[in-house]
Every structure is written in structure tokens, then in C-alpha cells.
Amino acid sequence: MTELPAPIPTAGVAMTALGVALVRVRETARPDRLYADPLAEAFVAAARPAFDEERWSRLVELAGQFYDGRTLAVKGVDDHIREAVAAGCAQIVLLGAGLDTRAFRLDLPRGIAFFEVDLPELFAFKEPVLAAHRAQPVCTRHVVAADLRGDWDRVLSAQGFRTDLPTAWIDEGVLGYLPRVDAYAVAAVATRLSAPGSRFGLGRFQVAAAEPRYRALRELVQEAPGERPVNGLGPDGESWFAAHGWQTSFRAWDDLVAPYGRPGAMGGDPTVGHVLAVRE
Ligand SMILES: C[S@@+](CC[C@H](N)C(=O)[O-])C[C@H]1O[C@@H](n2cnc3c(N)ncnc32)[C@H](O)[C@@H]1O
Fold first, then answer.
1. How many Cβ atoms from other residues are within 10 Å of residue 229's Cβ?
2. Any idea which architecture 13-279 has in CATH?
3. pLDDT digits (tens, 9 = 90+) for 240-257
4. 115 DSSP β-pair partners
5. Residue with the nearest Cα to atom 2 of ligand 1?
6. Mutate to test the pocket of ligand 1, among 118, 125, 151, 156 (most ligand atoms within 8 A of CB)
7. Of the segments 11-20, 170-179, 225-234, 260-269, which one has the largest average pLDDT value?
8. Domain ranges within the chain, ordered by starting residue
9. DSSP one-letter code for 32
10. Helix 38-47 with 120-132: angle, nearest 10 deg
11. Ligand 1 pocket: which of 75, 170, 177 to mutate (most atoms <8 Å of CB)?
């Protein structure tokens, strides 16, 4: 018998994963799509009944406001993972994996170990939906149901993570939800667990916290309205990695997304982009 999914949390950070799934549904439907994520629709359909009309409309509208940039970022991370694997990373750790399905949809070698770290309530929803669709990962997938503010590395190790293999660590929108001290604790754990050649990708940008769409996001997640708390790695993330045994390099967002041919989605600010840290 197929297990019924636990309802997706309709508030709190785990719910934000659904917003990104909506972005991937929209991209998948485009004839000129940059990637295809057919399972995103399955998550959205399973989640819809948990929301009332008003809350669902707000979520869909917000996903639309973030769509242009966020969908390019999904494609960017797809390519970043492919490059990391080509460079010898044998393990991938998605921090705050949400409803991501790269372990199912990317053309990865079978031998890659793919770890998804997220909160237990997220996986209580995600796993039964995957099972109901008989989704088969292309590589070895490990669910790490743990809070990044706690001893998640213990759960990661119990799932078979190896410190002797180069790892690609992906933060695709979770560290910004952690208090600064916890975000740096995650970076320190990743550093301790990283074999030479491991990679950690981080964004270099300032969230315009006062913009209406960020305010609406905070309200939907039900953070206290008003000032955004000091979150994530902040502007010192890059120098922290450089000081802790990582070689860092920077690529501007506009250069990264230019090959994807989506005019209008460019930022125009050459200081905004992606920092790649490679463990020495
Ligand atoms: C904006 S979503 C991004 C999800 C996914 N990376 C994507 O791009 O589709 C943020 C994710 O971080 C997870 N998250 C937030 N706080 C967390 C924590 N303390 N520990 C583990 N995961 C957390 C949420 O459950 C959610 O799935």
C-alpha cells in the first residue's frame, strides 16, 4: 500500500520549497524550457489541498514574482553540479534540498552519492509523493532528515557520507533562512568534512529586504513583519571560505546566465554573482 503524504507545511520555511517547485512547474511547461522537472507538478498537486484559496493565490503570485531569476538559478545549479561531477566530486550534498529532484532528473553517473538534507516535516511530505510516482533516482540517493541548526552531520555520516571523497555542497536558498551563527556553523561542518577538491557554491548579492516581494515572502512564511533579521553568511562568506582553506573565484550573474538566452533576466550589476570555493 502506498503511504499517504503528510500535508506540506502551509507555513514556515518548509513551505518555501513549494514556491520553488511552482517555478519549476512553469519552466517545465515552456517549449523553450531550460530544464524539465516533471515531478514538480506531482508535488504541487499533492500540496494544493492543504492550502485555502487565499493562501494558495498568494503563494502562486509570489512564485511568479521570483520566477525570472529563480528559474535561471535552478539551471545554474544544474550546470554547477555537472561541472563538479566532471571535476571529480563523487558526493553531492544539497543543503535545504526541499522538493528538488536532481537525483532523478539529471544525467548523473550511477556511482554518485546524492545526499538531500532538509527538515523531517519536508520529507514526510516528499517521500510518499515520490513513492506514489514510482520515481527512481539515477544515482544513489540518501535522505538526511535533520535540522541544519543541530547535529545534522551525525545523520549525514550515518547515511554513508565519506570524508575521503570530494563533495559538492549546494546551498540553493537555505542558509539565508538560518541565523548567522548557524549558517557559519554549517560552513564549518562542511569544511571539516570536505576532502581536497570539494566545492562549495555561495551567492554574492544583497537581498533587497525592503522590496515588496521579500516582505510578502516573510509574511507568507510568517516571520515577524518589519526588519529582516541578520541571516545567512552575509557579505563576509567569501572571505571566511578563503581564510579556512578554500580557493575562491567569482563569476558575475550576468556572465553566468548569458548562455541561457533569457533577455530581461539579467541583473546589470557586475558585483552580483556566484562564488565558487574549492577545498585545497
Ligand atoms: C527556499 S527553500 C529551497 C528548497 C530547494 N533548495 C529548492 O531550491 O527548491 C528552503 C528549504 O530549506 C529548508 N530549511 C529551512 N530551514 C532549515 C533547517 N534549519 N534545516 C534544514 N532545512 C531547512 C526548508 O525546509 C526548505 O525546503
1. 12
2. 3-Layer(aba) Sandwich (3.40)
3. 999 999 999 999 999 999
4. 93, 142
5. 17
6. 118
7. 170-179
8. 13-279
9. T
10. 110
11. 177
